[in-house]
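--- STAGE predict ---
source: upstream dedup step, 1 unique chain passed
mode: sequence only
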Amino acid sequence: MKSRYLSFFAAAALCVFGTACAKKKVAVKPPAAPAAAPASEPAPATAATPEPREESHPVAETRPRYPDAATRARIEELLERIQDAYFDYDRHSLRDDAVKTLNADATELGNILKQYPDYKLQVQGYCDERGSAEYNLALGEARAKVAKDYLVSVGVPNNQLSTVSFGKEKQTCEDHDESCWAKNRRVHIIALAMNQ
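--- STAGE serialize ---
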């Protein structure tokens, strides 16, 4: 009977240990990846079959280089608001009122012009009637240049501005007194025609 109990305990122990072992998970090593196949050599190109080429097509620029009528009208409006900048007698340095005049709306003008690189402005320099024609041409050019430099400093593209001097030609006032002369010592900005 004793052996019967021992066999029973042995069988029970085997069951307990057997089920405990069965629940234990064994780590399984994944199978090795297949060896990479050697890369096949590309077939040599023959003279009869040329290699395909990428064709380069020039990209057409879609942005207009010259403003439409509404934009040109806005530019003219800005130029009218900027008005003329005036100078002291025999001087080409910008006065405070001239800086204020040139600065009025110049940033917006510059932003518009940057969009239309073919649209050009001209800064015209003028003098009063006193002095020689040669001297006044040089003084008018110096006035136009200083005004142009100022406009460039506030954002108007340099390559879209040109200068010209009319010296003492094309006077706006014909009287021979200081109040009239002061009106003639100026710079004036105009939009050039498209083909200039």
